[in-house]
Amino acid sequence: MTRAALPRVVLRRVVRTLPVLLGIATLNFIILHLAPGDVVDVLAGESGASTPEYMAALRHEFGLDLPLYEQFLRYLTNLLQLHFGFSYRQNQPVLNLFIDRLPATLLLMLTAMALAIVIGTLLGMIAARRPHSWLDHGVSVLVLISYAVPSFWFGLMAIVVFSVHLHWLPSGGMVTIGANLSGPALLLDLTRHLVLPASTLAIFYLAVYARLVRGTLLQLHGAEFIRAARAKGAGEWRVAINHALRNVLAPLATMAGFQLASLLSGAVLVESVFSWPGLGRLAFDAILARDFNLLLGVLFISSVLVTLLNMGTDALCVLLDPRMERLA
Predict the structure, then answer these.
(1) Which of 41, 51, 157, 313 is least surrounded by CB atoms within 10 angstroms?
(2) Do 64 and 123 reside in the same domain of the chain?
(3) Which tens digit of pLDDT belongs to each residue from 96-133?
(4) CA 187 to chain CA mean position, Å
């Protein structure tokens, strides 16, 4: 029954998603073209001296002199043909740039998600072990700080402490430039560069999982199967891990699916702070260069990825609980 429900859920989501993607593409195009300047202005500024005739020729070559509605229709036509534009600033197709940067962002996102789930679950279990104790209050304070303080501030402070003062970890980049490392040495170098940005990105989300696990475990505190496990002589940690934690997996997996989508947007600031060569840094550089073709492509493809993640989360919900089919 559950497997038969999955195609219906996916089909409904696809039908609902198409107008959403059209709205996203339209909104992105309008907002970006309301901003002053374009890539020709940036190229002219970098060259130091450009005549109005040369700038007009560039705009004609790039299609920026066309009426706005013609540019929009051309943009939609290209999207329907799965052509996401060309970056005149970097002289490459947008899709190629996106594919080149995607692995770095996925590595950062998945590492941050793993840290958030593991540490958040552990903190939630510790807090639920002795509710209203000093340990529970201490976890609550940590969670509140994680919610209240912006991620980029954590990142800057981490650079000051661990890079500037202690010299333990590098302050930016993905690998050491010019080191020409390979094998285990390259893996170790990549791990050292990954620690600070992944930890910074995970700080906010681990607070979410800590609260979720704590609340769910407290609700199960008086359940019959928990009392039966205790009556058999099982210790509290064994009861929490082998019995109660199983019931946390469903909401935990659902939350993780939605969090992966928001991690993509949160990676923009973190990648900019740590100079991580991912999609967030690519979008930030595109804004500075007024490379609207590149920015439109990155935003739209990222929206498609977020939509696919949400669809996967809905399918997972149906697998875990068939009653969710009517809500998906």
Answers:
(1) 51
(2) no
(3) 998 898 899 889 988 988 898 888 888 888 887 777 78
(4) 23
